[in-house]
Specification:
6-stranded parallel β-sheet, alpha/beta, 7-stranded parallel β-sheet, 41% helix, Rossmann fold
Length: 397
């Protein structure tokens, strides 16, 4: 009989977390595992990338509570009052005050999920994959029936408003906590040492063969630029640092370097970045290409790959760039030193436009260094398929 596994996340937006899940699913033999992906929203550029043998489910009530979860409680109460729903307004106010006084967000989640009927399916393993997202963690622990449960952490817990009290109460109920880098694990344990025994590093799954094959599909760069192409892949958001990249490019252009910087990704910071590009007269030099589920032709064709992030858990696009042996500049985020040996397989810099500028300048000016980095990357063996044993071991107990 097939083992039943459920992964729960927000949606299938084009991002590293979602891509890592798709890669993991590809390593699970469909003859042995019945896989279900449960999402809060029917949304995302990777929706069509989910294999057809995977069951897709949605928590359809989420659209009714999304605004309540994400907006200040007084606005929710005001909304209910205007709609003539006095009891609801009072309830949401009291629940919020109680959860704030007791510093216990679980009370709020329990109220929102009141009346939710649990699915009768019993899974062999249920995974809160979009982590840390407190609501999903609470949902998996309290509303999913499973023999074993896993919490996944993809981010730097020092950067995302991590709720230590919630983690102490809810995370301890999981059988295992997987964290995507050694540095991210260290930060979690320093905050919540009680979770140490349950915590283990699980590197994001990447298949070099699949990546290189996908690079042959699609067009890649379509302009006639004959200078040096710099590429960044990531959601257009503050944490990914494209604004830092724009300011670094200003200095490169001022110094006369013939470069063009391309960004693959979409996000809520697009308008801010478009304004920054216009303000610095970079319309022809900093190109926002939008989201693309197959960035690999661009990775194969670019000259330099730059990751200007302010924080990461374990940057999957760095792993992917390495498969094409590209000289890399990355900021010193979580996992960077686990992925890049500074000066040998890339250049690691501080999170600052001057530092990024200097790192890029160093590679442009030193052709021998670029060639040496590429040569060293060719020698690296990056096979993460053995990581799957960790997940299978949880199921087997």
């Amino acid at each position: 009989m097939k083992k039943k596994i459920l992964f729960m996340l927000i949606n299938m937006n084009v991002g590293g977390t979602e891509k890592a899940l798709l890669n993991m699913i590809s390593e699970m033999p469909k003859e042995e595992y019945e896989i279900t992906v449960l999402m809060l929203e029917e949304y995302g550029g990777f929706l069509n990338s989910i294999p057809d043998y995977v069951n897709i489910k949605y928590y359809t009530e989420y659209k009714k509570i999304k605004q309540i979860l994400n907006q200040p409680p007084h606005l929710t109460a005001l909304h209910f009052l205007k709609a003539g729903k006095l009891i609801k307004a009072l309830n949401i106010t009291l629940i919020h005050l109680l959860s704030k006084i007791l510093k216990e967000r679980s009370i709020f989640f329990k109220y929102l999920l009141n009346g939710y009927q649990e699915n009768e399916t019993v899974y062999d393993l249920a995974v809160a994959y979009a982590g840390p997202m407190d609501f999903i963690s609470f949902f998996v622990i309290n509303k999913i029936k499973a023999k074993k449960k896993v919490q996944w952490i993809h981010f730097d817990v020092n950067k995302i408003g991590f709720n230590k009290r919630f983690a102490l109460k809810v995370y301890k109920k999981f059988d295992k906590i997987f964290i995507v880098s050694k540095e991210a694990k260290s930060k979690l344990i320093s905050l919540v040492p009680q979770l140490s025994e349950k915590s283990e590093v699980f590197f994001n799954i990447v298949s070099p063969e699949i990546i290189r094959n996908q690079a042959k599909v699609g067009r890649g760069f379509f302009d006639e630029f004959n200078g040096l192409r710099i590429l960044t892949v990531g959601r257009l958001s503050t944490e990914k640092g494209q604004d830092i990249a724009i300011r670094a490019l200003v200095k490169l252009k001022k110094d006369g370097y013939k470069v063009r910087w391309y960004c693959i990704g979409e996000g809520n910071s697009r308008k801010n970045y478009e304004k920054l590009i216009v303000d610095n007269n970079l319309e022809d030099s900093f190109i926002l290409l939008g989201a693309d589920t197959n960035p690999y032709p661009y990775l194969e064709q670019c000259d330099l790959y730059v990751q200007p992030s302010r924080y990461e858990g374990y940057c999957i696009t760095l792993i992917e760039a390495k498969q094409f042996y590209k000289p890399i500049v990355t900021t010193n985020v979580n996992g960077a030193k686990e992925q890049i040996e500074n000066g040998k397989t890339g250049v690691i810099v501080n999170i600052d436009e001057i530092e990024i500028y200097n790192g890029i300048k160093k590679l442009i000016d030193n052709r021998y260094l670029r060639e040496q980095i590429s040569s060293n990357l060719v020698k690296e063996d990056y096979d993460t398929s053995l990581e799957m044993i960790k997940l299978f071991n949880v199921m087997e107990g």
